[in-house]
Amino acid sequence: xxxxxxxxxxxxxRGQKVLINxxxxxxxxxxxxxxxxxxxxxTAVDSTEKLAMLRAIGADHVIDYTxxxxxxxGQRYDIIxxxxxxSHFARSLRALTPSGYYLIGNPSLAKKMRGAWISKRTxxxxxxDPAGHRAEDLIFLKELIEAGKLRAVIDRxxxxxxxxxxxxxxxxxxxxxxxxxxxxxx
Length: 186
Hints:
The chain is an alpha/beta fold. It folds into 2 domains: 2-127, Rossmann fold (3-Layer(aba) Sandwich); 153-186, no CATH class. Helices cover 35% and strands 24% of the residues. The strands form 2 sheets. A 6-stranded parallel β-sheet has the order 3-2-1-4-5-6.
């Protein structure tokens, strides 16, 4: 829901250049696939280990953030979706087109306040609002899944008894996509 919410807030359109920072996580992998579904040219940013998976789910371009800073490569994007909220604020704004959207999925209070100011003072829009729960969004996602146009990337599965271990793994930042907890009824 978060990825769909943010991309819709940015009024995503066919042919736009979209960069997703933190693309290898649960929200980012859905964001890559949705942006492709909407016809965007997608650049996915994450660590070395996740780049092949990001290509496999549709990213047109990948950037290894340990080797390259996307804000310094001279590219301009219509939408920058910072899923993890860790990209440099001012440099990310400079990497946007004049009327671009900077979407921050996990913003600090300072980024929220700066974002509101930037949105009022420039042609760029900074969005930090989390998604609400809308039935039509769930139906839209369900239809994409059923049509085979959207899939969850599952990194690991843990039984309910190993929830603490699953959480420790997620906290390492190494997961690609989702970690699933299996609840057994037996």
